[in-house]
Design goal:
Aminopeptidase; seven-stranded mixed beta sheet; globular
């Protein structure tokens, strides 16, 4: 097997080995490099590395199952490591793959000398049924001064404005912003106060028939009830469209959001991984 840089001409051969949202990153002009793995003339794997924040970050790596445990993944990794060495940078790998596949990938990076960064935001996995049962009996406050609306009720201009403000303030935002094609506008909710000031939001993305993810969750007042209102509205709507066994992946980037999830779903499993290697 051989590994080498992918160019525009041979990209079609490797697109099936890259995460579906990679094309959106490319469309937004994100600085990236792609490395392809071949066996003779057959494409059997690929790796994508982003340079969005200066240092290279592996955001997608995949080898066809029949070619695993044969050194292909290591060859992809060695190629991108050489890029990091040449530029005297550090290399990270971030992924949120649930279950056995995520744990297998974590072992792969650990075996190649990568250290897990424990400060990485926690990503909890639980079922829609577990959360719905907890939220079902929680009433809305009678003196509630905010309105909870879905993103589908907002214009593209409003979405772009709210997304830009969140990004400028360093608040959690999904890849591609609130207007991303991955965002489910009907399920995603935003809390607005007077003069349409944002009090919080919960963004939901569809990741498949059996799972959805929450890539961004924010409430302005720590310890307030806005987060509860948003969760109740969003997941009550989700329950109309998904089965109770649907899995939810929630990204928690602050102690308050971790506390909120652990309070409502104490058995939620942490599924977050960030590995780093210095050169």
């Amino acid at each position: 097997m051989k590994a080498g840089l992918i160019n525009d001409e041979n990209m079609p051969l490797f697109e099936g080995f890259l995460s579906p949202w990679i094309s959106e990153h490319r469309g937004n002009g994100e600085p990236m490099e792609f490395i392809g793995l071949t066996d003779e003339e057959t494409a059997v794997g690929a790796l994508a590395v982003s340079f969005l924040f200066g240092n290279p970050e592996i955001i997608s790596i995949y080898v066809a199952p029949e070619y695993r445990n044969r050194g292909g993944g290591s060859l992809l990794l060695k190629t991108v490591e050489q890029i990091a060495k040449d530029e005297e940078l550090y290399l990270t790998a971030a992924f949120t793959i649930p279950g056995d596949e995520g744990r297998e990938l974590a072992r792969f990076f650990a075996s190649h000398g990568y250290n897990r960064v424990v400060e990485w935001p926690k990503i909890f996995r639980f079922s829609l049924l577990e959360l719905s049962e907890t939220l079902r009996d929680l009433p809305y406050s009678s003196d509630m001064v905010e309105k909870i609306v879905s993103l589908s009720s907002l214009t593209n201009i409003q979405l772009r404005d709210y997304s830009s403000r969140a990004y400028q303030k360093g608040l959690p935002t999904p890849q591609g912003g609130f207007q991303s094609t991955n965002v489910d506008r009907g399920l995603s909710m935003i809390s607005l106060k007077e003069n349409d000031q944002v009090n919080g939001y919960i963004i939901i993305e569809k990741t498949g028939n059996a799972s959805i993810s929450v890539p961004a969750f924010y409430q302005k007042i720590i310890g307030g009830r806005t987060g509860i209102y948003l969760m109740k509205a969003a997941f009550q709507e989700a329950a109309k469209h998904f089965t109770p066994k649907t899995e939810i992946l929630t990204y928690c980037i602050s102690p308050s959001s971790v506390h909120l999830i652990k309070h409502f779903v104490p058995n939620a499993e942490n599924e977050s991984y960030l590995y780093q290697k210095l050169f």
